[in-house]
Amino acid sequence: xxxxxxxxxxxxxxxxxxxxxxxxxxxxxxxxxxxxxxxxxxxxxxxxxxxxxxxxxxxxxxxxxxxxxxxxxxxxxxxxxxxxxxxxxxxxxxxxxxxxxxxxxxxxxxxxxxxxxxxxxxxxxxxxxxxxxxxxxxxxxxxxxxxxxxxxxxxxxxxxxxxxxxxxxxxxxxxxxxxxxxxxxxxxxxxxxxxxxxxxxxxxx
Amino acid sequence: xxxxxxxxxxxxxxxxxxxxxxxxxxxxxxxxxxxxxxxxxxxxxxxxxxxxxxxxxxxxxxxxxxxxxxxxxxxxxxxxxxxxxxxxxxxxxxxxxxxxxxxxxxxxxxxxxxxxxxxxxxxxxxxxxx
Lengths: 205, 130
Prior knowledge:
The structure holds two protein chains of two kinds. Chain A has helices at 2-21, 43-60, 89-102, 119-128; strands spanning 71-81, 105-107, 150-162, 167-180, 185-199. Chain A is α/β, with parallel strands linked by helices. Chain A folds into two domains: 40-108 and 147-199, 3-Layer(aba) Sandwich (Rossmann fold), CATH 3.40.50; 116-145, no CATH class. Chain A has a five-stranded mixed beta sheet with strand order 2-1-3-4-5, with helices on one face. In chain A, α2 packs parallel to α3 (89-102). Chain A is extended. The longest helix of chain B has 16 residues, at 2-17. The radius of gyration of chain B is 18 Å and the shape is elongated. In chain B, β1 (38-47) and β2 form a beta hairpin. Classes of the chains: A alpha/beta, B mainly beta. Chain A binds chain B through residues 31-32, 47-48, 50-52, 54-55, 58-59, 61, 64, 94, 97-98, 101-103, and chain B through 50, 52, 54, 85-87, 89-92, 105-106, 108-111.
């Protein structure tokens, strides 16, 4: 009897511990996330940086093409000089969407710093041209691609600073440049700095 | 009789569609809206030559302490439809004690004709119409 009681109490305590300690999974309201800040970069930092960059670019007038129309933009290298593994598309894609929706810019995927962004578009042209299986009138002809006018490049830099024995600061610099390919001149540049302070135990990478 | 019934139903629909404001939310549909600790003293909007719209909102921190506010601007087209854009996300703004503050913004495209500004502080929302 005594053994049975012990067993029941153990099972009960085990259940309480297991259920009590489990963190409930909830969906985050991405439009109004009141979650605590983290030492590393999270989506809120990318979102705010992209928003500020697009606003700055539009407000600068650098996207106003003489005689109207849209500029063709190519995304160049965005260097990740942080201690974190970042897919820079987290930043760049948002900027591209904002610029595309501005009606001032179209982005070419035919070329990029690491080759064509959309490899299929290029492959299709090369592989299908002269291929008897395909109606050649539907195959993209030579000389139809549009060369870019502008190039967007940038860098994300991280600096870690020790404040005292228990506190650290992490500074993140988002730097972007819009270059006129024809002249090589930078039409627009901007920088956004994000600073975070937290425990030394937090990991900023 | 038909007219009376129609008016009655129209009135019913109009009242029925209006959702009540939550108590925790302050919404003022005026050009100048005043919260407890901040006031919006001026709202400007103008069309630029390229068709984009530029806005500037001037506010005043009425309190003796620094405040961190968040704001977002919703852009509307000529028909009053919301323009979905990354430029309508919440943004931080720091406001010094007893000092004016300025929010400047540009529309996401040239189709923007109007805007709404939302400011959040301590879970209270203030809406300012253009």
